[in-house]
Amino acid sequence: MFSRFLNVYCRVIDVLIAVALAIMVVLVFGNVVLRYGFNSGITMSEELSRWLFVWVTFLGAIVAMKEGSHLGSDTLVSKLSVTGQKVCLVLSHILMLFVCWLLFKGSYDQVLINWDTTSAVMEASMGIFYACGMVLAVSGALILMDRMVRLAQGRLADSELIGVRESEEEPIDVPAPIK
Predict the structure, then answer these.
(1) Of 5, 65, 68, 118, whose CB has the highest number of CB atoms within 10 Å?
(2) Distance of alpha carbon 74 from alpha carbon 55, whole angstroms
(3) Which residues contact 151 (CB under 8 A, 6 or more apart)?
(4) pLDDT tens, 43-99?
(5) Residue 138 near residue 104, CB atoms below 8 Å
């Protein structure tokens, strides 16, 4: 049930990323045309594009975590038994949950510090800019906890214990090859 929610959530994020990228392209291309063709420009183009780029990066990290497409090394883990792989998965997820907490705490502090500060051109709260770290931290923690719950319930396949692929060309939905 919760895994389905995460799948829908990541699909929504995919749409948001596509919309943000389209806005960035229109803003930057339009600004270039206006500057070179008409000696004018869109005032907030650079700043909004920068904000969208940061948000796209953090939202993309959520989707990559859900799909298991972040970089990693399986040299040691792939040589372990299934029990050893499960232990390593739990330990690594506990460490990543700690990192999610650190990211959340740091981003939250930055949001509080910068909430009353406005950006130079858009005059929007800089807290919005730093909130992307909080979104990533909470979303990442939910994804990690979902995997740990599925492992505890026995619903995590052995092929999902090692989430690393040999190549970028390998599809994500195909189990990693056993060595």
Answers:
(1) 65
(2) 30
(3) 86, 89, 90
(4) 899 999 999 999 999 999 999 999 888 777 778 888 889 999 999 999 999 999 999
(5) yes
pLDDT, residue 18, reads: 98
Query: Could you give the C-alpha distances from 118 to 42, 43, 98, 121, 129, in angstroms and in order?
Result: 19, 16, 31, 9, 10
How is residue 128 written in tokens?
Answer: 């919005």
Mean pLDDT of 154-179: 66
Closest CA to 47 of 163, 128, 160: 128
* Sequence ranges of the domains in the chain: 2-160
Q: Which of 72, 65, 52, 53 is nearest to 97 (CA)?
A: 65
pLDDT band at 169 (very low <50, low <70, confident <90, very high): low
Give the pair of three-digit tokens for residue 9: 């959530």
For residue 26, what are its two tokens? 């229109």
Q: Which position has the token pair 């389209």? A: 22
Helices within the chain (DSSP H only): 2-38, 45-67, 82-114, 126-152
Query: Which pLDDT score is estimated for 173?
Result: 54
